[in-house]
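Why does this matter for the project? Reviewers at the last site visit asked to see concrete outputs rather than summary tables. In response, this paragraph embeds two records directly. Each consists of the residue sequence and, immediately after it, the corresponding structure tokens. Nothing has been edited or filtered.
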Amino acid sequence: MKKLLALGLVIFTSLLLTGCGQTKPEDVAKNFYQALEDKNVDKAYGMLYLDTKASQHEMETKGKLQMIVGEVSSRIEQKGGTQSIEVGDVVTKEDNARVQLHITFNNKTQSDETFNLRKQNDEWKIRL
């Protein structure tokens, strides 16, 4: 009985860990946009696709991202914040994806934003 319980626990843990990297690209794009609006540089940085060169220059990459976050969040604030985010076209080809988000702001203006993503270690990441 203990062996059966242990086997069940191993299978459950494996399935749980396998599912962690299976987030949809559109979910990652929405979460990244939300991190920009919330001025959460660390969360946004964790969602970036980093090649070897960018990984070696972490401080420089974070500095550039901080400027982007500041600019984007300022534009969002000027429009009264985000009212809603709808997923538009999602095109996935192997390890690459393009996601279009349709954003409605509280001042009733709208914007379409396109995000390019790449799979890295079975997780979708934003490409800048």
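We now turn to the second protein, recorded in exactly the same manner.
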Amino acid sequence: MSVKSIRLGTRRFQKCPVHQRWELARVVTEDEWSEEIVAEAAAHRDSNII
């Protein structure tokens, strides 16, 4: 069994594919994105559920 996230209303408690830590995440709208954030996200891919 694999657990990638736990939903908590509008947020999720999930393992971050960048930092490899469990963190509270939320939806980020496109107007909040910076070039640095997009580049960092593009450099890290999430793992598959097996």
